[in-house]
């Protein structure tokens, strides 16, 4: 029976710490941190995420703004808006919700964000700083996973971590951070072309699934006692499920994150932490 890593609860604790730090910053004469979110189009999941982010900001004493743009907006108009937000001294963090519509080149838009306001840490300058071990911001989801590991005293040093999924947003930075000094894991970055993925996973002390395939990771892929971190959020007919077959994994693993209530809420907490840092505060 695995110990459940409750991301909902931990995210509330961290958000409380952030609220305290915001209050300290403001009472020391600092400016109220402000996050500007940009939402293009009407994607229902994106609307829910952005709303949740704004609610979390409000509760932590972080100001939030929302720019809603029509799905058919031109790339040039979107870039104009980002230029304005870059120049606005009241705005500390800028988040352009992904995915963007097809007429817009997401990489061009993300590169237009001032790296000092890039609270997603998607800008190449911030990716580069992270790769070199001098991060300005850590990307929110991998940062949230690291916080979950640290605050549950899950050892990574000398362990074999297997990350499934090589996305720029989760898999790649997750693998890199776990291998860095301080975390000291030996990391395998597995993906859709990895031969005998079940066997690779069975060798993992720490298994991180970030692929976006419902319940792909089966119970017999898991080493007994392993920590299983499920980053997947898949909407299926039977509701929201992760990338891991939770019921089967829970019987074998030592620790496991639920979906929902695992990594997702931690991602939002780390977005607030990055916004606080962008405003000159001390993030947890
Ligand atoms: N620029 C940008 N930055 C992002 O960080 C970003 C993005 N675009 N696009 C979409 C993904 C996805 N993402 C989630 C954040 C929180 C939950 C979350 O809180 N999930 C809840 C459940 C929410 C639900 O019911 O869907 C949970 O897991 O308990 C999920 C997903 C951030 N993303």
TrEMBL record:
Any GO BP: purine nucleotide biosynthetic process
SUPFAM superfamilies associated with the record: Aminoacid dehydrogenase-like, N-terminal domain (SSF53223), NAD(P)-binding Rossmann-fold domains (SSF51735)
Domain Tetrahydrofolate dehydrogenase/cyclohydrolase catalytic: residue ranges: 5-120
Ranges of residues in domain Tetrahydrofolate dehydrogenase/cyclohydrolase NAD(P)-binding: 139-279
Reaction catalyzed: (6R)-5,10-methenyltetrahydrofolate + H2O = (6R)-10-formyltetrahydrofolate + H(+); (6R)-5,10-methylene-5,6,7,8-tetrahydrofolate + NADP(+) = (6R)-5,10-methenyltetrahydrofolate + NADPH
Positions of transmembrane segments: none
Entry's Gene Ontology cellular component terms: cytosol
A single GO molecular function term of this UniProt record: methenyltetrahydrofolate cyclohydrolase activity
InterPro entries: Aminoacid_DH-like_N_sf, NAD(P)-bd_dom_sf, THF_DH/CycHdrlase, THF_DH/CycHdrlase_cat_dom, THF_DH/CycHdrlase_CS, THF_DH/CycHdrlase_NAD-bd_dom
CDD domains assigned to the protein according to its UniProt record, in alphabetical order: NAD_bind_m-THF_DH_Cyclohyd
EC id: 1.5.1.5, 3.5.4.9
Binding-site residues for NADP(+), renumbered to this chain: 165-167, 233
Pfam families documented for this protein: THF_DHG_CYH (PF00763), THF_DHG_CYH_C (PF02882)
Keyword S-adenosyl-L-methionine belongs to the record: no
Superkingdom assignment: Bacteria
Pathway: One-carbon metabolism; tetrahydrofolate interconversion
Keywords, in A-Z order: Amino-acid biosynthesis, Histidine biosynthesis, Hydrolase, Methionine biosynthesis, Multifunctional enzyme, NADP, One-carbon metabolism, Oxidoreductase, Purine biosynthesis
Quaternary structure and interacting proteins, as annotated: Homodimer.
HAMAP family: THF_DHG_CYH
Function: Catalyzes the oxidation of 5,10-methylenetetrahydrofolate to 5,10-methenyltetrahydrofolate and then the hydrolysis of 5,10-methenyltetrahydrofolate to 10-formyltetrahydrofolate.
Family: Belongs to the tetrahydrofolate dehydrogenase/cyclohydrolase family.
Protein name: Bifunctional protein FolD
Origin species: Botrimarina hoheduenensis
Organism taxonomic ancestry: Bacteria, Pseudomonadati, Planctomycetota, Planctomycetia, Pirellulales
């Amino acid at each position: 029976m695995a110990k459940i890593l409750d991301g909902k609860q931990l995210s509330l604790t961290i958000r409380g710490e952030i609220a305290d730090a915001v209050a300290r910053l403001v009472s020391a004469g600092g400016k109220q941190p402000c996050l500007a979110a940009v939402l293009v189009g009407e994607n229902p999941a994106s609307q829910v995420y952005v709303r949740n982010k704004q609610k979390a900001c409000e509760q932590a004493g972080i100001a939030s703004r929302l720019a809603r743009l029509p799905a058919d907006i031109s790339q040039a108009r979107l870039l104009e808006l980002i230029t304005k937000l870059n120049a606005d001294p009241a705005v500390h963090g800028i988040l352009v919700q992904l995915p963007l519509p097809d007429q817009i080149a997401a990489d061009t838009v993300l590169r237009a964000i001032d790296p000092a306001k890039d609270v997603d840490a998607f800008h190449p300058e911030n990716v580069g700083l992270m790769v070199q071990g001098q991060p300005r911001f850590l990307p929110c989801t991998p940062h949230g996973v690291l916080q979950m590991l640290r605050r549950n005293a899950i050892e990574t040093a000398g362990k074999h971590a297997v990350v499934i999924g090589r996305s720029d947003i989760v898999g790649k930075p997750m693998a890199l951070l776990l291998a860095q000094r301080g975390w000291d894991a030996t990391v395998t970055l597995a993906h859709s072309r990895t031969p005998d993925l079940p066997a690779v996973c069975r060798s993992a002390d720490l298994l991180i699934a970030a692929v976006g395939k419902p319940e792909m990771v089966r119970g017999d892929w898991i080493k007994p006692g392993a920590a299983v971190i499920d980053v997947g959020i898949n909407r299926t007919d039977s509701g929201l499920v992760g990338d891991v077959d939770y019921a089967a994994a829970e019987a074998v693993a030592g620790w496991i994150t639920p979906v929902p209530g695992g990594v997702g809420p931690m991602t939002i907490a780390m977005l607030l932490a990055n916004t606080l840092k962008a405003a000159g505060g001390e993030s947890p």
